[in-house]
Every structure is written in C-alpha cells, then in structure tokens.
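Exercise 7. Given the encoded structure of a 287-residue chain, write a plausible sequence.
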C-alpha cells in the first residue's frame, strides 16, 4: 500500500511541475513577443535573411537603420542608428534637406556582448568621417529615443569596441547572408508625400515643397510606410558599391533658403507653426 501511495504522490508532483513549467514557458514567450527589443526583424522583400556568423562577437543580436549621405558608407562604426520608431524621431545630423537629394537609409545587422551608455556620433560639415563623443569607450550604447511617445531605441557603435564588444555584418551584394539593405531616402519621402498632400510624390519638388506634402500623415502611418519601404517591396534596394554621388557637395554649397530646415527632427511638419508661420525659425519647428 505504501509504495502505491508514494507512486501516486510522485506522479502528481511530476505532473504539477510539468504543468507549471509549461505555463512559465508560455508566459516567457508572451513577454518575449510583447517586448520590441527582442523581436527579430521581418524577412525583407527580395531576401536578405540573416544567420548571424558564429565567428562574430555578441550574443545579443538585432538590426537597426541609419540615414546618411551617399558616399559616407553604410557601416555603423562610429555612428548612431535606431529601430524604426527611434529613427523617425532621430535628429538628422545635417538636416532633412541634406538627405533629400542624395540620402540613403540602410538596414544593418549587429550583435553586442552587452549594452553600455549611449554616445552621440556625428561628422563635421563637408566630411564623411564620423566620430562618437565617448573617447575610448568600447561598448555599444542604447537608450530610449527622445520622442514624445517615448517609443523606439537609439544605438551607438564606437570603433573602440568593434569586433571586441560588438560586431556587424556589412555584405552589400544581393542575396548575401545578413546583407546590408539600402534604399534611397527620397523613395521613403515620396511614400510619405503620397500618403499626405501629394498623390504623385515629391519628384521635381524642392525639399521644402516636399515637406509640405507630408501634412496629415500620422506617426503610426509613417512607421508603416518605413516598414513597407524595406519589407513590403515599396522601395528598390541598392546593391554593390555606394550609388549616385551627384549631390555630395550639397552641404557646403546650400544657400540660406536650402538651409531652412537644418537640425530638424523627423516629423517637424506636424507642428502647426510649420504651416501657419512660414517665416518661423528652425528652432520653432523642432518637435
């Protein structure tokens, strides 16, 4: 009798532990899915999946976007980048106008050993050489994007930690494993314009006129358009070497009219002053 009772007790104990273990796994999976920091990027249109090389350092893996002038290179060393909500809220280093004519947006795969403090990275006017402000700080940084809604993340990748505390994959050829995916920034601007005031997009328009087209586009819609540009086949990818340099001197030659929007955040057109006060200064338009 006693052995049978012990067997029943043991069976009930094991069954209970299995049930609780299953529940815990389900709860962890729900938390993982709900946490945007741990979501893997959707598979891009046209391929571009990623089986991150085991030879690269870093167990925390992800993707980020950064916008830059053609010729500056798509790599993230000594640069900032962000997820979609973070990049929408990012302050463009040289202003929206500088990226209007010859800007690229790149999706890059990265891995880090751990997250450190976020560093501000930038380049001097007329130069493609970026530098982060952390001296010899070696860890990739992350912080919550400074947006009104507090959505998204900003990242920094100092050179001191490259292939030591963080790594990235920079293949530019079509179909490569973990390929860098690049589009022309103008394609994204056209999508936003078409969703706003200008059904035909911004072709043939100046940067300022194009920005007028963005009126009425919500933040949620902008995020969807960004997603569609990369993962919905709305914008063609740029492969191979960096493309079209026709306007790379624009930062140095821009006249005061072209410089009207320097250092504005993405989304400045949502400010009522942008339409109600055409003579407002750039500082008035930051949102």
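Solution.
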């Amino acid at each position: 009798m006693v052995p049978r009772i012990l067997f029943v007790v043991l069976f009930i104990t094991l069954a209970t532990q299995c049930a609780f273990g299953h529940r815990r796994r389900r709860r962890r999976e729900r938390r993982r899915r709900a946490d945007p920091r741990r979501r893997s990027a959707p598979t891009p249109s046209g391929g571009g999946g990623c089986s991150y090389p085991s030879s690269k350092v870093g167990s925390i893996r992800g993707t980020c976007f950064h916008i830059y002038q053609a010729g500056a290179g798509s790599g993230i060393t000594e640069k900032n980048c962000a997820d979609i909500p973070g990049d929408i809220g990012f302050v463009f280093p040289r202003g929206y106008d500088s990226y209007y004519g010859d800007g690229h947006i790149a999706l890059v795969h990265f891995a880090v050993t751990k997250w450190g403090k976020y560093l501000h990275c930038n380049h001097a006017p007329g130069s493609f050489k970026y530098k982060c402000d952390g001296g010899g700080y070696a860890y990739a940084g992350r912080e919550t994007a400074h947006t009104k809604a507090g959505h998204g993340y900003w990242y920094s990748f100092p050179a001191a930690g490259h292939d030591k505390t963080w790594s990235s994959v920079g293949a530019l050829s079509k179909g490569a494993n973990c390929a860098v995916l690049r589009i022309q920034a103008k394609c994204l601007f056209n999508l936003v314009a078409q969703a706003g005031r200008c059904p035909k997009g911004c072709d043939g328009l100046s940067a300022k006129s194009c920005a007028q087209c963005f009126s009425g586009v919500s933040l949620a819609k902008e995020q969807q358009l960004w997603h569609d540009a990369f993962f919905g086949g709305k914008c063609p990818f740029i492969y191979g070497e960096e493309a079209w340099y026709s306007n790379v001197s624009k930062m140095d030659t821009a006249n005061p009219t072209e410089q009207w929007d320097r250092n504005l955040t993405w989304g400045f057109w949502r400010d009522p002053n942008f339409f109600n006060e055409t003579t407002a200064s750039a500082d008035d338009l930051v949102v």
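Remark. The radius of gyration is 23 Å. Students should compare their own answers with the one above.
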